[in-house]
Amino acid sequence: MEINSSIGLLQLQEMVKESLSGAFPATLWLQAEISELKQHPSGHCYLTLVEKDEGGGALLARCSAVAWASSWRIIRPFFESQTGRGLAVGMKVLLRVQVSYSAVYGLSLVVYDIDPSFTVGELELARQRTVARLEEEGMMGMNAMLPLPALPRRLAVVSSETAAGWRDFRRHLLENEYGFGFVLELFPAVMQGDAAPASIIAALDGIADRARDFDAVLMLRGGGGAMDLVCFDDYDLAVNVAQFPLPVLTAIGHDHDYHLVDMVAHTYVKTPTALADWLLERFSAEDWQLSLLLQRLQLALRTKSEAQRGTLDAMGLKIRHAVASRHAAALQALQALELRLDAVDPQRALDRGFLIALKNGRRASTATAFTPGDRLSLLFRDGTVEAEVTDVQ
């Protein structure tokens, strides 16, 4: 090309812009993954969209995009209402965009809409891939191999303190008509949203440190929207449940919900109330078996007494006494066990006038746990006192 036939940079940019305008006169639907997302104080949302090779995850393409405030204030709440979660980095989306070209800023995309149904479908595909991965790694059925006591009474519960499912479960289990006794301890956790998997894993770690104190772990949620429960399809959470040293019993969601955590758990029950019924049925069945055995023994004794009134009357009486004694001894042992469990309840110590010292939320059993200047909490029967250590002797 001759020097006198050259063009300027702006002219070149204008030619590119004109070519793009002719090639993309209207909006189009674009599939991409969000790699960056920043919301400006002005209300605009700036995104970086990428496409990756599904095989190795190598970057194939990248482009900047913007959703102006006038569009973003409509797009964001609609997407969240339909999916139950906000747009986030790493999420695959289907966007309606207009190709834009600036001589200064280059190629960019203007976002006018985002289809939430596409993202929901992508999440289901990711869930299926995670299921296949767990099966390949042998996680399915691992927790179910752990022995569950015939009568699990000491139960660690992972749930939200304010969850209706936890309240319903606790009331249904502890106020049972049979009078069966249970020991429940709540390990609070976030039970929905992006923070839920890490929060639940932290609660499980706390239980694992005291695994000998419990017969089983119960994970309670109590239902919600489909996207509210996506956290229970998290791979890391499923692996933690599968490899947990205690049987994990899950009751998450309603009848139509079934998640990866349910698949790898020891036992899956549909709702928290149904799980309470499941536990009560085990105790009720054992109680019925004992009653039936007693009735069979009594019937056998009566039959033999009628056939051999002389010799067997005395023997039958001894057997009845022995059965009654063993029943009384078993009942007394059970009552003694309940008294022992009740005796170690911290609240009992507080009711007797003792107090409990806490440092950083944990019980301190020795004076050497404190140094001058430490803050501590003193738990009394009727309240808590916050104090500062001035001297340790």
Give your account of this protein's structure:
The protein has helices at 9-23, 69-83, 116-136, 164-174, 196-208, 235-242, 260-264, 272-307, 309-343, 346-351; strands at residues 28-39, 45-52, 59-67, 92-102, 106-114, 154-159, 183-188, 216-220, 248-251, 267-269, 356-359, 362-363, 375-380, 383-388. By secondary structure, it is an alpha/beta fold. The strands form three sheets. Strands 1-2-3-5-4 form a five-stranded mixed β-barrel. The longest helix has 36 residues, at 272-307. The relative contact order is 0.07. The mean pLDDT is 85.
How helical, in percent, are the residues?
A: 40-55%
Broad shape: elongated
Main sheet record:
5 strands, mixed, barrel
Radius of gyration: 32 Å
List how many beta strands DSSP finds: 14
N to C succession of SSEs: HEEEHEEHEHEHEHEHEHHHEEEE
Please, what is the average pLDDT? 85
Largest sheet strand order: 1-2-3-5-4
Report, as a whole number of angstroms, the end-to-end distance.
93 Å
Number of helices: 10
Low-confidence stretches: none
Strand content: 15-25%
What class do helices, strands and sheet pairing give? alpha/beta
